[in-house]
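Board notes, transcribed. Complex of a protein with fe (iii) ion.
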Amino acid sequence: MGTIATDKEQFRNYNHDQVNPAVVEHYRKMRSRQTYDYVQSMKAKYLTYDTPMNLWDAMRKLNELVDVSDPDLDLPNVQHLIQSAEAIRADGREDWMQLVGLIHDLGKMMFVKGSDEDGTSQAEQWGMVGDVFVVGCKLPDTCVYPEFNALNPDMDHPVYGTELGAYSQGCGLDQVDLAWGHDEYLYQVLSHHKNNKIPEAGMVMIRYHSFYPWHTGGSYTQFTTAKDDQYKQWIIDFNQYDLYTKSQKVYELDEVIDYYAPIAEKYLGSDPIWF
Ligand code: FE
Ligand code: FE
């Protein structure tokens, strides 16, 4: 694991005294506004697959976005993507996983279609980034800043405020709705991309990498199945590269395209992706 920083305690430090107040404010808004109904309306609004974009043009868009929820990095998001991919590559992992590292946050290009009102803009990112949780059931105290859970209007709802909420025991994570954000958006966009050949493990890494209360916090066992336990192993494997590779090292996308373009073509073809 030569490419991975050993002092893990330096990452994901959300301590109120040490973190940028914008990170705390991001989570306060996210927790209070991401309701079950909000997520349904965002799915209807953003999963329209009407904006064709070349993969590299979409990646370049991320040069305009700095993730406000990330306490570890203040570089444009495309830098984090290249850092993740390069660490996976340096460890000699599979080519598809290198590609997943490179594109796993590409769903943040949602801000191109986004608005402050939806929390999907540069100024308001609470509908786009940050750790996600299940909507439509009780919020667990494994969420970052659990003191904000009470601000979510669904917690007073007779169904959505309960342990099972809108779902049933053992239904599987595929059946629950997560807070709206870049994971689900990219997962759905790629699932609808006709040339997508990314293996299931890669698609799972894309879909659930921000789902910390589950993959790291251990919550939501009321829903999970043996299949989800496999999902978790994939996510934990991927997470080391998503989290511990963040650094101030700056890459140029154009310098790494030559290496990644043939891998992207192998798994995504050369047609535009419909966002
Ligand atoms: Fe992410
Ligand atoms: Fe990431």
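Strands lie at 52-53, 273-274. The chain has a mean pLDDT of 93.
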